[in-house]
Design brief:
Layout lengths: L3 H4 L20 H10 L13 H19 L7 H14 L10 H5 L2 E3 L25 E3 L7 E3 H10 L35
Antiparallel strand pairs: 1-2, 2-3
C-alpha cells in the first residue's frame, strides 16, 4: 500500500524537523456536546437541556482549557475560566446562557496587518502571528480585548461575558425613545379620521 504522500503527490515531511505541539486541543467532543445543550438558536424558547449534558459541556471545555494552561507560564484569565467551568460542571445551571452563532459571526475581525509580533491570545498564550492565517476577533467591550476565534468561541457559547473584564456582551439594549412629533399642539389631523 502506498503512503499518503505518494498517493497525493505531496512531498514527505522532513523527519529531522521536530513535531510541533498543536496550537489548541481538539474541541470536537465539546462542540458535539454543545449541540445538545445550546438553546440559543432553537425555535422553542421553553426547551431546556438535560443537566448531565450541560455538565459534560462545561467539563469538556474546562479540561481542554486546563490542557492549554499546561503550556502557559504564569497566571492569566485562563485560570479563572477553568475554575468557573469546573464549578459549573459540578453544579450545572438549568440553561446555558451563551451567545448565538450569529453573534460570533458578527464579531469584528482583526486584519493580520494590524497584528504585532508581541500580541498573543489571552487564552492559549500563542502569538497571533504564529498562525499563517490568524482568525482574530475583537470583543465589543474593549478595543484591546482580542482573541483567537477558536479559543473564545467555546467560552462565549457557554458564557456571554468577556473573560478579561466579565462585562456582559449581550446586554439587552434599551430601545431608543420615540421621536417627538413636530406637530404636538393638539390639532386634529383629518388624515386619520
Amino acid at each position: 500500500m502506498a503512503s499518503y504522500e505518494v498517493e497525493h503527490n505531496v512531498p514527505a515531511p522532513d523527519p529531522s524537523s521536530q513535531a510541533r505541539t498543536p496550537r489548541r486541543p481538539d474541541l470536537s467532543t465539546f462542540f458535539s456536546t454543545l449541540e445538545h445543550v445550546d438553546t440559543s438558536d432553537v425555535a422553542n424558547s421553553n426547551a431546556l437541556p438535560v443537566p448531565g449534558e450541560v455538565s459534560a459541556a462545561f467539563r469538556t471545555l474546562g479540561e481542554a482549557y486546563q490542557r492549554m494552561g499546561a503550556y502557559r507560564s504564569g497566571e492569566g484569565p485562563l485560570d479563572g475560566m477553568v475554575e468557573w467551568l469546573i464549578s459549573n460542571a459540578e453544579a450545572p445551571p438549568k440553561e446555558v446562557k451563551g451567545v448565538s452563532q450569529g453573534f460570533l459571526d458578527e464579531l469584528e475581525r482583526v486584519p493580520k496587518k494590524l497584528l504585532k509580533p508581541s500580541m498573543d491570545c489571552p487564552i492559549c498564550g500563542n502569538p497571533f502571528l504564529e498562525d499563517e492565517y490568524p482568525l482574530v476577533v475583537r470583543l465589543p467591550c474593549n478595543k484591546n480585548h482580542m482573541f483567537d476565534l477558536e479559543c473564545i468561541a467555546p467560552w462565549l457559547k457557554l458564557h456571554a461575558t468577556c473573560p478579561l473584564d466579565r462585562k456582559d456582551l449581550v446586554k439587552e439594549k434599551e430601545p431608543p425613545p420615540p421621536p417627538k412629533d413636530e406637530e404636538e399642539d393638539g390639532e386634529w389631523d383629518d388624515m386619520y379620521a
